[in-house]
Specification:
With 173 residues, this protein is mostly helical. It has helices spanning 2-29, 31-34, 86-97, 103-106, 119-123, 126-133, 137-146, 160-170; strands spanning 38-40, 46-49, 116-118, 157-159. The strands form two sheets. It has a two-stranded antiparallel sheet with strand order 1-2. The protein has a two-stranded antiparallel sheet with strand order 3-4. It is a single-pass membrane protein.
């Protein structure tokens, strides 16, 4: 009987109480993050998470890092191709033919879903995006630099999804 009471007590405490407490605390202290870092457009429509990249094909948008999973969050994963794999080389050549030179745009994202690019990879795209939006390149460069985030172990990065949304909001083309 003691074992059953102990089991029920621990189940309620650790299986119900603890998860509810952690969830409540997260909702109270970090509501945006606890709800998936959701991004909405000007009309209030949910368009994604700040933590997940999305594909952008039009010239007026900055291109995110290529995804091995084609930006499918449920199947998100990296490619297991080695540096000498013909398919990997062919992809890099295809990206280079499209005008990309930064390594971050010549290779696929490690997670397949990272919305961040190194500052150098974003700056490489300034002329194309500025022309498509009718902006001055130096104006766009200033906007980019004002939204850079310190890289954890590497260079400064830009959240390409947030940058593209900001441009749609403030600089329509």
């Amino acid at each position: 009987m003691i074992a059953i009471r102990t089991l029920l007590t621990l189940t309620l405490l650790l299986g119900v109480g603890y998860p509810l407490a952690v969830t409540g605390l997260a909702q109270w202290l970090f509501p945006w993050q606890a709800n998936g870092s959701q991004l909405h457009n000007a009309e209030g429509k949910l368009i994604g998470s700040a933590l997940l990249a999305q594909p952008f094909q039009q010239a007026k948008y900055f291109t995110p890092r290529p995804s091995a999973s084609e930006f499918a969050s449920l199947g998100g994963s990296a490619s297991n191709l080695g540096m000498s794999a013909p398919a990997r080389r062919a992809f890099a050549e295809q990206q280079a033919a499209a005008g990309f030179t930064d390594a971050a745009l010549l290779t696929r994202s490690a997670s397949g879903l990272d919305p961040h690019l190194p500052l150098t990879a974003v700056l490489e795209q300034v002329d194309r995006v500025a022309k498509a939006r009718g902006m001055k390149p130096n104006e766009l460069t200033e906007l980019i630099r004002s939204h850079q985030e310190a890289g954890i172990l590497g260079p400064s990065v830009i959240n390409v999804l947030e940058l593209n949304l900001l441009l749609d909001k403030d600089h329509h083309a």
